[in-house]
Amino acid sequence: MLLLQGKDSSFKMTGIVGLSTNMFGSPTASILLVLSGAASAAFGPTIQRCPADFQLVRRGQTISAPESQYIKERREKVLPDAFKAYSQNLKRTGTELPKYVQEILESPQLPTVGISTSGGGDRAAIFGAGVLNALDGRNSSSVKKGTGGLLQAATHLAGLSGGSWLLTSLVQANFPTIQHLVFGDGQKQDFDGWLTSFSVWTVSTDPAEQAIFAQEILQEIAVKAKHFPVSVGDAWGRALARHFTNGTTVNNFFSNTSHGAGILFSDFVNLPTLASREQPFPIMVLNIVSNHINGTIFPGMNGIPLNSPMFEINIFEMGCYDDVLAAHTPTKHLGTTNESLCVTGFDEAMFLSGTSSNLWNELNRTAESLAAATANFSLLVNETYPQSPALRLDTSNYPNPFHGIAPDTFSDSGETILSMCDGGEDGQVTPLQPMLVPDRKIDVIVAIDAVDDGGGFAHGASLIATQQRMQIFPGGLAAFPAVPTTLEGFANLTTQPTFFGCTPSHIKSASGPMLVYIANGAPPRDGSPPLTNTSTGQFIYTESELQGMLAQTFVVATQGADVNGALEDPEWAAC
Ligand SMILES: *[C@@H]1O[C@H](CO)[C@@H](O)[C@H](O)[C@H]1NC(C)=O
Ligand SMILES: *[C@@H]1O[C@H](CO)[C@@H](O)[C@H](O)[C@H]1NC(C)=O
Ligand SMILES: *[C@@H]1O[C@H](CO)[C@@H](O)[C@H](O)[C@H]1NC(C)=O
Ligand SMILES: *[C@@H]1O[C@H](CO)[C@@H](O)[C@H](O)[C@H]1NC(C)=O
Ligand SMILES: *[C@@H]1O[C@H](CO)[C@@H](O)[C@H](O)[C@H]1NC(C)=O
Ligand SMILES: *[C@@H]1O[C@H](CO)[C@@H](O)[C@H](O)[C@H]1NC(C)=O
Ligand SMILES: *[C@@H]1O[C@H](CO)[C@@H](O)[C@H](O)[C@H]1NC(C)=O
Ligand SMILES: *[C@@H]1O[C@H](CO)[C@@H](O)[C@H](O)[C@H]1NC(C)=O
Ligand SMILES: *[C@@H]1O[C@H](CO)[C@@H](O)[C@H](O)[C@H]1NC(C)=O
Ligand SMILES: *[C@@H]1O[C@H](CO)[C@@H](O)[C@H](O)[C@H]1NC(C)=O
Questions:
Q1: Is any atom of ligand 10 closer than 6 Å to the C-beta of 147?
Q2: Main EC class of this protein (predicted)?
Q3: pTM, whole model, 2 decimals?
Q4: How far is the CA of 352 from the centre of ligand 8 (A)?
């Protein structure tokens, strides 16, 4: 039994909340909750008159003016030195670089490198972090291997689902090194690492502590709930914020503080390392849950057909580059649906990243299965803030800024709400689409794949999905290099980094990027037990587990067979 009375800014809750075993196997706790209090949270979206020059929708498949400016400034101010440092690191490994490579690295036409880091829960966030560390010019071990410096030389960084947690936390913490990002700075300040000693939904076996956690999560969305639909996606975003944005430490985990509420994705542009263009341009990927699309569902997926439009959110815009919609809206004003009244504060960073990782719709087979998978938060949100029965509670919901746009081709043009979900639910769990936007002119994509295609390892399915989708949406998206069409074809290509798109025909067509594929594909070559193939549902990791995973990932990304360099592939860095 649960009795909650939602009332603008204050509410009382009394009753029994049963928090059963959720999909991630956390323990059952049945609790008696008798709490009351006023949610005085000052954060949440606000609605004001729009600025004079406000444009709700920008049409087209070209990138936005501020993005172009960002990339231009990064190319001018940051990349020349970054590439110089990177090529010096390469030379220091003693490998002879072919002349044309030297020329490319020293030419004024520096290559445009995008890094895409996949979904797969914390496993993917950790594997992605390990690869970024191996590419980071600030880590002396990475520099020694010759891979360090490529992160600094990349122009774009895309994350999806677990990869979007890595992306968002890295960006918002102002681009610390991976050790600082994952473990905190030890001074228990703003950002205290990923706090993997706590799970995400079920954070305590103590029912009273879990109840306080639940109440705080619900209070934190009170202001938003006054004017906007709320769903499990909002609770999920608040739960994730405790791990991936500033404001939560081991010591204040259960304290009633803001836990990073009010940290907005569009505000990141003001962080020192974004203002100075030192960070690659950050992008997240989402899918839409539509009642109006029927199409081929990629094998192993259970929801979103491959012919659905793909969405992305970057620090400037949310939108879709596919020809069926080709429209974008300002991230800063998400929530807005007309040009007279503008919303700000809707773009909570972890609400957006929580959208990229919202797969609760896949677990909505029955009301009970959904409640179980979300530790009852889907029910709690709806009972605290009663919603229209027509509203989906399993997705992350956005007032539709594209209402009436492309009515003949955009499936959800007529909807008032866009129901959004995990960007990998169509099978493309490695976020390659943003790198295939022709106007981004990406030359090389570094694809980091930590999807679980079986046994916790990646076997190439997400690249196959992207290849299939490119055949459905050829218009306007860059050519994708040929990859095997079956998992069997990928057999040996996931066990070591693999290059796609080096064939003369692909290079001659010159329309698409080359792909450097780094997969979490197999146990270590030196025979030690694999640590990086943990289950997607595992959210609790000890510090030594994390260090072990990062160390094995470092070996994968630097192609040393063990930390001492035995069985090392000496040519990898130069490749
Ligand atoms: C959290 O603090 C606010 C005041 O800042 C208060 O209204 C609310 O009841 C508190 N919530 C809990 C769970 O203690
Ligand atoms: C988060 O904290 C770090 C310091 O740990 C700081 O540099 C950064 O600006 C903060 N980010 C935000 C969005 O407040
Ligand atoms: C999709 O398929 C279902 C069942 O076959 C059908 O009822 C529905 O009308 C179709 N929708 C569209 C948009 O084609
Ligand atoms: C514009 O949007 C605001 C906020 O969502 C809404 O209250 C208002 O009715 C809308 N105005 C028009 C003319 O549609
Ligand atoms: C959800 O909570 C209710 C109590 O409000 C409890 O009876 C029910 O078992 C819970 N359901 C699940 C699936 O956890
Ligand atoms: C959500 O709340 C509304 C209003 O109380 C109710 O009509 C609806 O059935 C609820 N949805 C679910 C799935 O419980
Ligand atoms: C579960 O999915 C169905 C569509 O299959 C949807 O109509 C319903 O709203 C979803 N339930 C919740 C609670 O979101
Ligand atoms: C990880 O791989 C090992 C060896 O291949 C296997 O025994 C283990 O079950 C895998 N772990 C998971 C969680 O799949
Ligand atoms: C994979 O590698 C093994 C051992 O090197 C080899 O026997 C096998 O033929 C390879 N498979 C494919 C599909 O290339
Ligand atoms: C550099 O990377 C290695 C391998 O993951 C790690 O052990 C080390 O702590 C890192 N060093 C710094 C300074 O971050």
A1: no
A2: hydrolase
A3: 0.92
A4: 32
